[in-house]
Structure formats: structure tokens, C-alpha cells
């Protein structure tokens, strides 16, 4: 499992729990060439990783469900908010319903589902395969397919 959606509805909407994601370096202003695999944290401390440029990136998270990752170098910090990066805000799920007739809340309320299973269900619902799109950052095929849905 690299990407799980927790469909709660109401004010919670859809929560994300992301275990594999791109990292952005504030030093060289680029995404690392490989996706980062999150294996857990302790009190929000994830660990560190070396950027392709040689910079050490210190990572922290929310300590439970991983909806964002904080990336620190020296006195600088950036936040990769996965709902923004992967286009999974409330408006994006409304777009999914209006453009594709797929209501994630109706079909999956109070469930946890992996992104690849959601993509397969949307493909089955619409009777067509979603082609992946090139992204500005390293991404799994499922994320690339989701980004294609949100592009339309």
C-alpha cells in the first residue's frame, strides 16, 4: 500500500494516508529523481534523506495519517500538502462526480481504499481505461492516472 484514501464525509471529506511520494529540495529547487518511501515516524520525526544535489533533507510529518510532509534544510522549511499536490481537495472530488458520474462518498463512505483500487473502480464505472499523464514530479501510475482525471 502506497496511497490510501479514508472516505469520511462531512467536514472531514476524504483524508489521505500517503506512504510513497516525491520530495522537493529547497536548495536546488527540484524534485528528487526517486520517490520517497515513508516507513513510519516517531513523534513526527521521519528521518532524513540526501537530495541528488547533496543537500540533507530533514523530514517531519503529522505522526499518524500522512497527508503532508515537512521538508527542512538549515533554517528553511517547505510543506508538501498531498491534497494540493495530487489534486485531492473537496472540489476535486466534486469534479470527479460532475465530470465522471462517480460519487466517492456514495460508493465508499466510511471505507479505506487504496488509490489503485479507486482508479480501477472509476475505469469500470466509465468503461474505459484512464491513460497516465506526465507529471512535474515523480509519481506512481495511479497518481498519473488520477492527475489525468483532474486535468479534463
Offer a quick outline of the entry.
The protein is 28% helix and 32% strand. It is α+β, with helices and mostly antiparallel strands and 152 residues long.
Characterise the protein shown here:
This protein is α+β, with helices and mostly antiparallel strands and 152 residues long. The protein has five helices and eleven strands. The strands form four sheets. Strands 7-8-9-10 form a four-stranded antiparallel β-sheet. A three-stranded antiparallel β-sheet has the order 2-1-11. It has a two-stranded antiparallel ribbon with strand order 3-6. It starts with a strand and ends with a helix.
Number of domains: 2
What's the helix-strand series? EEEEEEEEEEHHHEHH
Structural class: alpha+beta
Main sheet: strands, sense, barrel: 4 strands, antiparallel
Uncertain regions: pLDDT < 50 for 5+ in a row? none
Instruction: Based on Cα principal axes, name the global outline.
Output: globular
Helix content: 25-40%
Sheet-strand content, in percent, reads 25-35%
Task: Give the topology, please.
Elements (H helix, E strand, L loop, with lengths): L2 E7 L3 E6 L1 E2 L2 E2 L4 E2 L4 E2 L7 E6 L5 E5 L7 E6 L2 E6 H4 L4 H11 L3 H5 L2 E4 H12 L14 H11 L1
Antiparallel strand pairs: 1-2, 1-11, 3-6, 4-5, 7-8, 8-9, 9-10
Amino acid at each position: 500500500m502506497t496511497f490510501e484514501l479514508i472516505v469520511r464525509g462531512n467536514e472531514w471529506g476524504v483524508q489521505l494516508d500517503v506512504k510513497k511520494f516525491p520530495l522537493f529540495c529547497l536548495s536546488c529547487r527540484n524534485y528528487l529523481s526517486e520517490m520517497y518511501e515513508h516507513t513510519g515516524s516517531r513523534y513526527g520525526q521521519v528521518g532524513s534523506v540526501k537530495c541528488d544535489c547533496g543537500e540533507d533533507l530533514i523530514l517531519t510529518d503529522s505522526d499518524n495519517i500522512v497527508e503532508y510532509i515537512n521538508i527542512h534544510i538549515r533554517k528553511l522549511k517547505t510543506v508538501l500538502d498531498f491534497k494540493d499536490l495530487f489534486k485531492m481537495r473537496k472540489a476535486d472530488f466534486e469534479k470527479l462526480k460532475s465530470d465522471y458520474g462517480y460519487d466517492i462518498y456514495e460508493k465508499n463512505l466510511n471505507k479505506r481504499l487504496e488509490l489503485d483500487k479507486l482508479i480501477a473502480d472509476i475505469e469500470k464505472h466509465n468503461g474505459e481505461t484512464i491513460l497516465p499523464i506526465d507529471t512535474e514530479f515523480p509519481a506512481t501510475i495511479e497518481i498519473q492516472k488520477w492527475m489525468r482525471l483532474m486535468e479534463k
